[in-house]
What we know:
The complex is a heterodimer. By secondary structure, chain A is of the alpha+beta class. Chain A contains four helices and six strands; from the N terminus they run βααββββααβ.
Amino acid sequence: MNYTILAYETAEAYSARTDPNKQENYRAGWMAYSQVLREAGILVTGAGLQAPDTSTTVKLHNGQRMVQDGPYADTKEQLGGFYVINVPDLDTALGWAARCPAAIAGGVVEVRPNIQMPS
Amino acid sequence: MEDIDVRRVIETAARDSYGRLVAFLAARSRDVSAAEDALADAFASALETWPRNGIPGKPEAWLLTVARNRMTDARRHARVRSEAVPTLLMIADEAHAMADSNISFPDERLNLLFICAHSAIEAKARTPLMLQTLLGLDAVRIASAFLVQPAAMGQRLARAKRKIRDAKIAFEVPVASELPARLEAVLDAIYAAYGSSWDDVAGADPRRRGLSLEAIDLCRMLLRLMPEPEVNGLLALMLYCESRHKARRNAGGDYVPLSEQDTAHWSRPMIDEAEQLLKTAARSGRIGRFQLEAAIQSVHAQRAVTGHTDWEAIALLYEGLVVHAPTIGALVGRAAVVAEARDTAVGWGLLEVIPTETVKCYQPYWALAAHLLARLQRTDEARTAYGHAIGLCEEPAMREFLTRQLQTLSASSTG
Lengths: 119, 415
């Protein structure tokens, strides 16, 4: 069963990405986590996302296209990346989610089962 | 009557008697869910009527009477399992008799503990079931401690309670021939509650404190009801670990490994109590896994008095432990201690022979491997191991500690 781990990061975590004193540890944490997922043989795919201020949203409002700068949800923690993992059950997925650097650094991690594609 | 007094009496009754009341009702009706629901109603009606009419002389008996009335009503109303009604009426009589006299109601909690850890109950439901039925913890709190979806935890608990009712699991203490195995299951379940808080080295956020204190409460309850040596051993073990709670972080909030902890921050009363328990257990002459684990912690505790750690004594105790209970934790622990007591390479040798498949996701293995490989100056392998230990870590302070170690390693190898 595939589950998606959505990693919502705090403002501090985003600033650590560019802080010369912190970026090495920041990056090392994510690399270590990605590596253990890979070696556990459960990583399907994943991506890290650039900072929320690089985001652009598109929607239709009364038939009019509306394009806006910035992320969709105006929340304290912002989506910073995701992993799709293949594990037997939700309990196992939650066990892996708890190790996600976003969760450890005070952010929030959401776990959702993927829709099963008919093969 | 001040509302606040009533609330305090109710809270005290809930804390001291919740498990006894559930156990008493469930032992007679075989229906744990119904017992809990009825008791919740009884507490609610206490909140409503006690401020008005005053606190009854025997609050527990009052709660029991109301609860069994609710159970009888619910059964009659549902018109199902009508054979249960006579039993409930019998409870009613007993409850009335007790409310009017000085007899206290029998303590059935030991039976309930054994039921919760019964082999017919799925293993991962046992600890949650104990925490809920004996201490009254809610499913959301239990789910968080065990990293399980709250709805799934609720279902797991409901399923276990249905099983107790439908399979008619007996409310009785196992016979002597079965006792050791059955008691071990009870102890394992209690220890699992303690283990749920292992990762929270910090203890800074009370919501994340885990269930260590609840585990200690359960074990104290069990010890009063059944003073077996291994029960003493488990309680001693948890108290030794708990005694170091404040020393696991320094003033700056950083993780401090056991060997570097300031013993002034250890809790002396907890250590003294643990020592006493371990002595009591030893008098029986029946050694077991938890007594050995507690003895290992006892040697560590000696550092507060002697100023040094007797690693050789710990290594010998580990030899005993891996014979009694060759768990991954014990094997990794032994390797760590042998590296400390004798020689890093010998310790690494013990770690190396543990099959990789069993430790692939076991964080303490990788943390130790990294530490030993660094000491053996096998820097590249150490770096890889640190990566695993960091990637598998759930605890912020521990993760920072490992990251710092990795940086030190990189700095020393390049500089």
